[in-house]
Amino acid sequence: LLFPVSNLCGKCRPRDTDLLQPSLNFLYCSLHQTTPCSQQRAVAVLLSNVSLLELLQKVLEGTWLWSPPSEPAYLSSEDALLCSGWLLIASLLLYQHRYNTEVHQTLSLDLTEVLNAVIFRKKKPILLLVSIMQFLRAVLRQNFSSSLLVIVGQNAARGATQPQPSSLQDAALHPLAMWQVFSLVISLQNLLVQKDLLLSQAVVACLETLAEYLHVKNQDVALHVASQPWHRFLLFTLLSGGQKSFLQPEVLRLMALFLRYQSSNIISQKEISQILQEAEEANLAELPEATSRALYLFLSQV
């Protein structure tokens, strides 16, 4: 089935949403729901289909032309197709790297446009933001060096209103610029305070991956970003209201992240003690799996 469906996609136009959207979902599920042996073959089939990859290029470029719908909570068929396209590309990046699969057609994406899709989100649907963040995580984990992807528009000028970071910092973080890193972090924090479960999981995961990327590129920059005082305000916002709020998975993962980068001005001994006390009083067997994993991560960092 994978072969004819991928060929069918390659014959479609980006506006054929009724056919493309379920087809791309099928390809995505085929990659994730199969055995490792079949997964490697599935990746090879998809990456050998030049028409499919050319179509995905056109679909993703529709993100830059996105305009807010009349109903903010409404996920249109075009939005759904964008979500499927970003998720599929993120998966292809992941598995192409894992299996070192041969690439027959590269994709070209403007890094500035991708970042701006999150930074200047214009009331984008949550699922679309989550899908783009999955892609961002994939390229960050691969250090922007995938043989499937060509990054263009690196450090493009954005006018006089943007801060002018030092060239040494930009060189260390290439292809990111320092102002892009800070803008992205602030935007992710703003998304996190919306307290949407799906969005929170994606945002925290993206922050973790970004911190790892920065740490590899320049440890001083990573520590500088992690120790910004606005992180403490973010924690206060996330902890406002509710009982045992310290045991929220996104809070625990953020705490673990700050501990990892030694941000003592963000998380104090008092917060650590409160988490330990809440964990002691909780019935650990009844905690959700996401909370258990986050608590384990936090305790490991402690």
From TrEMBL:
<dbReference type="GO" id="GO:0007127">
    <property type="term" value="P:meiosis I"/>
</dbReference>
<dbReference type="InterPro" id="IPR052133">
    <property type="entry name" value="Immune_Signaling-Apoptosis_Reg"/>
</dbReference>
<protein>
    <submittedName>
        <fullName>MEI1 protein</fullName>
    </submittedName>
</protein>
